[in-house]
Amino acid sequence: MLVYEEKKNINHFLGDIMTDSKKLKIYQLKDLENIPQLKVLSQEELFNIKVVANVLPFRVNNYVIEELIDWSNIPDDPIFHLTFMQKDMLSSKQFNKMADAINKGLGKQELKEVANEIRHELNPHPAGQLTANIPFMDDEPVQGIQHKYRETVLVFPTGGQTCHAYCTFCFRWAQFVGNNDMQFATDESKKFQEYLMNNKQITDVLFTGGDPMVMSYLKLKAYLEPLLEPEFDHIKNIRIGTKSLSYWPYRYVTDKDADDLLELFDKIMSKGKHLAIMAHFSHYKELETEVVKRAIRRLRNVGVKIRTQSPVIKHVNDTSQVWEKMWQQQVNLGLIPYYMFIERNTGAKNYFEVPIAKVFEIYREAFKSVSGLSRTARGPVMSAMPGKIVIEGIAEINNEKVFVLNFLQARNPDWVKRPFFASYDSKATWFNELVPAFGEEEFFFEEELSDILSEKRERFIENFL
Length: 465
Fold this sequence. Notes:
Layout: H1 2-16, E1 26-28, H2 43-53, E2 59-61, H3 62-68, H4 78-83, H5 92-103, H6 108-119, E3 136-137, E4 140-141, E5 145-149, E6 152-155, H7 191-198, E7 204-207, H8 217-224, E8 237-242, H9 244-247, H10 258-270, E9 274-280, H11 290-301, E10 305-312, H12 320-332, E11 336-342, H13 349-352, H14 356-368, E12 378-383, E13 387-397, E14 400-410, E15 420-423, H15 446-464
Parallel strand pairs: 6-7, 7-8, 8-9, 9-10, 10-11, 11-12
Antiparallel strand pairs: 1-2, 3-4, 5-6, 12-13, 13-14, 14-15
Helix pairs in contact: 1-11, 5-6, 8-10, 12-14
């Protein structure tokens, strides 16, 4: 690994000029009173956080608290909204229900039962994650993976079903609330590897969670290294979906196995695989610390490609100026803007959602203000039941104002890049609120989608219920 050794010397030099390393310290619901920065809040504000954090998962760390949040700008700081619960993340009925349970002094199990009642009202598995995306092999479900699009399989490693900190808007929040019936994770049989071997049309494997980068080097190696064997030659691209660069960049710089991790990444690429970090950056503030810049340099020094993505989130990044600045900074650091998403219809969506029409304007204004190097960002995109639907534009056709839509990915690849139209709706925030334009009864794909989903639901009911 001569190339890696040369790069490692550079990385060690960068490490030498680092400030002192930081040890990860996690704060959860039970630790709220131990976060000194929260003393800027009133008792009522602190109680509100506790109420919502009994329903939606809460987890933050010392890096986010000490280096990302501007505590002189509370409650308006975007990273504060990104990581700390706000009262309006639940409806008033839901909030009062949980608050009453806490004030009555109910026990842990009783509080959990109240929380679960509320959680099931929050669409814990949007876009058919639970019923429509689980593949089967030998008439049995393959645990811990999703296969929605022909070329790409999502793998949920058991050890990666948490994060360095939780995003309050997270569309996979159900993974983290301790309910087994809401959680995806691989079993220990490595059956998912057999599934990959038997499906040669799969070219991309995306390790996701949670966050795979909470795993140690040795645990990551156990998942990644087998894909370098000849029986996986059809797997060309390995992706890792992670928020670690935002929430714990020390993972790549001063964590005890950081060098081993980079050596593993170098080995993967030396075997001819493309390795991409799918980095979740929601605000430009996450790009501004010295440690994240060093982490990015270390990854790029060994040839890892870093692509960036985030939804548009009210209270966090719902202006074109934020996106323009974020994309420009990403390109300056050598990152590739990849997706602007629309916030999914789950969890605290009512608090974070932005109308589709406004998201498109945010995208268009930011897109037209940056150079071509930033225009790799595709969007705005909805990861909906039928596939990844992009808003191509807003137009007037035959005297009707419409959204121009397209599939970037679809359950049936033949749907991709076939433009279709929805009647313009200034208030709609998700695809299921749109109706076909020009008096059409349904979108072109709906009958086939219904057949696909019916078959998948039957298999799900047969094998899970």
